[in-house]
Design a protein that fits this description.
The complex is a heterodimer of chains A (about 270) and B (about 270).
Chain A lengths: L2 H12 L8 E10 L6 E11 L4 E5 L6 H8 L7 E6 L4 H6 L3 E4 L11 H10 L10 H7 L15 H13 L5 E5 L7 H18 L2 E5 L3 H7 L2 E6 L4 E7 L14 H16 L1
Parallel strand pairs in A: 3-7, 3-8, 5-6, 6-7
Antiparallel strand pairs in A: 1-2, 1-4, 8-9
Helix pairs in contact in A: 4-5, 4-6, 5-6, 8-9
Chain B lengths: L10 H37 L9 H10 L1 H35 L1 H16 L2 H12 L3 H25 L3 H9 L4 H38 L4 H11 L3 H29 L9
The chains are: A alpha/beta (about 270), B mainly alpha (about 270).
C-alpha cells in the first residue's frame, strides 16, 4: 500500500523540491445542453490541489460540485478551460488509473462477493498488472471475515466500505469521492469519517471529497472549497486549521464551531 | 425450525424437522387439490352427468391406465416439438437482444417487425406454416418457437439494459471495454429478466406445439385432443389435458431449478 508515497517523493525530488499539484483546474467552464436550453453548470473555476491534500467541496445543490469532480474523472467533458491530473489530461489519467472514484451509491455488483467486487478493477480495462491486495484492503476498511458475503448480505455502511476498498486496489494517487457517505445514517457516517482519515494517512492518497454536510466538510478537510450556484463558481477556499489526527471530539471545540459557522454564513450568501 | 432450542439439535432431529417443514408447506395445496377432485366426483354423482359430457375422476384415472401406451407415443412428439421450439425461439431471441443492445440501428429497424410478428394471432399463423412446411415436426417447432420468441426478446433487451448509470460510469472509470461490460455486468443483470421470460416460455411452448398439431397432424397430444373430442372419448380427453399440463409444469420446474442455481443474489423487482 505504502510504496506510492515513496514513488511520489522521488518524483518531487526530480522536480526540484516543488511538488507538482495533484489536480490543477484552471478557468474551467462546463455547459450542458444546446441552443436556448443551455445550462452553465460551471463557470471559470480555478483550483490547485496539492499532492497528498484532502480537500472537501461543499455548496448548495446546483453549484456543480459533483460536476467538477466528474470533470476531473473524465465523466463530463469541458466546454472551456483545462484540467490536469498529475500533469496528464483526465482521459490519460483515467487510462493510467491515476485516480479512483467512489460514488454515493456503493455500485457493487450484487452477484459478486465482497472480495470479488474489490477485485473487479483488476479484471477489466487492462488492470491485471496490479497486485491483488483485495484481502489486505478489506482488512484495512474493517471487513475482515466478510470477504465472501454478497452485497445483499451487507449493511449500507459495509457496502460503502467495500467500494472504498475497490477504489484503493489500483493504488490510485487520487481518490475522488462524490458524497460517499450521503446515504448513510449519522452514526455510520461519523465512524466512516474517522476511518477515512486513517486510510488517508496510511495511504498518502490525495482526496477530493464532495459533501453537503458542513460538519463532514470541516471534519475531513484540510481545506473546504465552498461553491455557489447558478452558475457554479468558487465562492471561497477556506483553510481548516485543526490538527491531525482528528477525532470526532474535535467537533466540540471552539475552532470547529467557528469554522462551521463561517461556512454556514458563506453558504447562506450563495 | 423457529423454536429457540436450548440444546443444539442432532442431525437426525434436524432431518425430521426438515421433513416436517416440507410436509407443512405441501399439505395445504395437497388437501385443496384432493378436495377439488372430491367435489368434482360429488357433482357428477349428484347430477348424474353422463360420462361423454364430463367424466368422473375415477374414469379419467382408468383412461390413464388403459391408454398409457397411446398417451406415451403421442406425448413424445409434443415433448420434442415443445423442447426444440423452446430452444430455437429463446436462442434466437437472446442473440437478437444482444445485437439490439449493441446496435441501436438494428433495434430501430427490427423491433417494430418483431412487434408485428407478435401481434399476429398464433392460430392464424399455424395454417400458413402447415401449408409451407407440411405435416411433420417442422411447423410445430416453428410455432412453439414463435410463441416463445417475443417475451424473451423483450425481457432480454430490458435485462441487458437494466444496468444502472452509476455502474456504467464505474466501468468507464475503470476503462472497461464494451465486451468486458457485457461479460462482467450485462449478462448477469439480464438473468433475472431472462428467467422471467423463460418461465412464460416453458408453458407457452407446449401450447404452441399443440396448436400446431391441432391444425394439421395425426400425432401428438394436440391431435389426440381433436380425435378424442370428435369421438366423445371424454375420459381419455381429460387424460390428454392432464398430460399436457404435466409437461408444462415439468418444464416450468426445470426452468425454476435452473434459475435458483444461477441466481444466488437478491434481485431488484422484475416484471
Amino acid at each position: 500500500m505504502m510504496n506510492h508515497a515513496a514513488r511520489r517523493s522521488t518524483l518531487s525530488l526530480a522536480l526540484t523540491n516543488e511538488k507538482p499539484s495533484a489536480v490543477s483546474i484552471s478557468n474551467v467552464d462546463v455547459r450542458f445542453g444546446s441552443g436556448s436550453g443551455v445550462v452553465q453548470a460551471l463557470s471559470d473555476i480555478s483550483v490547485d490541489i496539492a499532492q497528498g491534500a484532502l480537500i472537501t467541496m461543499i455548496g448548495p445543490s446546483g453549484c456543480g460540485k459533483s460536476t467538477l469532480l466528474r470533470a476531473v474523472a473524465d465523466l463530463v467533458p469541458l466546454s472551456g478551460g483545462d484540467i490536469t491530473v498529475l500533469g496528464k489530461t483526465p482521459e490519460e489519467a483515467r487510462r493510467r488509473r491515476t485516480f479512483s472514484f467512489v460514488f454515493q451509491d456503493a455500485t457493487l455488483l450484487p452477484w459478486r462477493s465482497a472480495i470479488d467486487n474489490v477485485r473487479l478493477p483488476l479484471e477489466v480495462g487492462g488492470g491485471s498488472h496490479h497486485q491483488d491486495d483485495a484481502q489486505a484492503l478489506l482488512e484495512l476498511v474493517g471487513l475482515k471475515g466478510r470477504e465472501n458475503a454478497l452485497p445483499g448480505e451487507l449493511s449500507g455502511g459495509m457496502r460503502q466500505r467495500v467500494s472504498i476498498a475497490r477504489a484503493l486496489i489500483t493504488r490510485p494517487e487520487i481518490l475522488l469521492m462524490d458524497e460517499p457517505f450521503g446515504a448513510l445514517d449519522e452514526i455510520t457516517r461519523d465512524k466512516l469519517n474517522e476511518e477515512l482519515l486513517r486510510i488517508w494517512k496510511e495511504t498518502g492518497t490525495t482526496i477530493m471529497f464532495v459533501t453537503h454536510s458542513i460538519p463532514e466538510a470541516v471534519f475531513l478537510g484540510q481545506q473546504v472549497l465552498v461553491m455557489s450556484a447558478h452558475p457554479g463558481r468558487v465562492k471561497e477556499l477556506v483553510t481548516v486549521d485543526l490538527p491531525f489526527p482528528r477525532h470526532l471530539a474535535v467537533r466540540d471545540t471552539m475552532e470547529f464551531v467557528n469554522i462551521s459557522a463561517r461556512l454556514r454564513r458563506l453558504l447562506e450568501e450563495c | 425450525m423457529s423454536q429457540a432450542s436450548a440444546a443444539p439439535l442432532s442431525i437426525g432431529e434436524q432431518r425430521v424437522e426438515a421433513i416436517l417443514d416440507a410436509a407443512w408447506s405441501w399439505l395445504p395445496p395437497l388437501l385443496a387439490a384432493i378436495g377439488l377432485v372430491a367435489l368434482w366426483q360429488g357433482i357428477i354423482w349428484a347430477f348424474q352427468v353422463p360420462s361423454y359430457i364430463a367424466p368422473e375422476p375415477l374414469a379419467v384415472v382408468q383412461a390413464f391406465r388403459e391408454n398409457a401406451w397411446l398417451l406415451w407415443v403421442n406425448f413424445l412428439p409434443t415433448f420434442v416439438e415443445a423442447m426444440l421450439g423452446f430452444l430455437l425461439g429463446n436462442v434466437i431471441a437472446i442473440f437478437l437482444a444482444i445485437w439490439f443492445v449493441h446496435n441501436s440501428m438494428a433495434e430501430r429497424a427490427f423491433y417494430p417487425i418483431a412487434v408485428f410478428i407478435k401481434t399476429i394471432p398464433i392460430l392464424a399463423v399455424a395454417p400458413i406454416l402447415v401449408l409451407i412446411f407440411g405435416n411433420g415436426y417442422a411447423p410445430k417447432i416453428i410455432i412453439a418457437a414463435l410463441i416463445c420468441f417475443f417475451p424473451t426478446l423483450v425481457n432480454m433487451v430490458r435485462g441487458l439494459k437494466a444496468v444502472s448509470p452509476a455502474t456504467l460510469e464505474l466501468m468507464r472509470i475503470l476503462s472497461a471495454s464494451d465486451v468486458e461490460i457485457f461479460r462482467k455486468v450485462r449478462i448477469q443483470s439480464s438473468l433475472p429478466f431472462l428467467f422471467a421470460a423463460l418461465k412464460i416460455a416453458s408453458s407457452s411452448c407446449v401450447i404452441g406445439a399443440m396448436v400446431g398439431e391441432w391444425v394439421g397432424s395425426n400425432f401428438g397430444l394436440g391431435a389426440l385432443i381433436i380425435e378424442t373430442t370428435l369421438n366423445y372419448r371424454s375420459p381419455l380427453l381429460y387424460a390428454v389435458v392432464f398430460t399436457s399440463a404435466g409437461l408444462a409444469v415439468a418444464l416450468f420446474a426445470i426452468v425454476s431449478v435452473a434459475e435458483r442455481r444461477l441466481i444466488n443474489w437478491k434481485t431488484p423487482e422484475v416484471h
